[in-house]
Amino acid sequence: MLKILVFLFSAARVSRTSNVGKFEVPYEYLATRNAINRGFLMKDNFGSTIQGVYDTNCNATRCFFPIFLNTNDNNFAYQILTDTPSQCTSYPNCLLFTKTQYQNYSIVFGDPSIQDDLSDNRNYNVSKCGALGFTRANGLNWCFSLTQVSTDREDAESNCGLEGEFLNGFQFIEEQEHFLEILNQKSLENNTMIHLGAKRASGATTFSWTSSTVSTNNTLANNLKTLLVNGSGVNLVLRLINNTWLYDSVEDTVLAYYSCGWYAN
């Protein structure tokens, strides 16, 4: 039987440092990251070998080392995750460990904002996003929420704005796919609608994101099949039709759930 590893990282020392620290990284966030390798390390030479594992696998980019279980008295297992969105199609099963096996601690390498210190458990700045986020090419974490309260467009925008947030949008196709995947896990009812942060000009058939902070990629405001059922409406919503998410255009007074988006850092 696999046993949970409770390992005192404060005893470990790396041979040379690459902005490394020990952090409480949420399991839900790790489940969205890209798994690139796995292996075992000897307990008695952990400090002298983990730097080499990082150098070999991470190419000087940010990586997470959640160390989660031991198999015998001399070795413990690790998994390497880059801080890029996972290509796994069976979320979150690309992780080698369950949430109950994970002790909430990861060694984080390659983040220039952290100092070399393995002695303390600190909250990592992805915790605001958890699984509801995506690391964009600029290195910043774009977080999003889903409020399952039917609201008109004006109130949805206002509610997001109260927290300095925006109606959500997508800069990358992987980001859009991740968002839709999360929606599909929620067992929402047919014909559910979700306000997003894009509009179309009256009479036009294409949408544009209303804030460049949200997205500059208008292709992703138009790449899902568009219903345009409501005719005169100019506001973009996602609409669930027979288990498929489609775009639709609705008037200001139409009630729908809404998604806010914001940068975590």
Automatic annotation (TrEMBL):
The keyword Signal applies. Residues 1-17 form the signal peptide. Keywords: Signal. It comes from the Eukaryota. This is PAN-3 domain-containing protein. It comes from Caenorhabditis angaria.
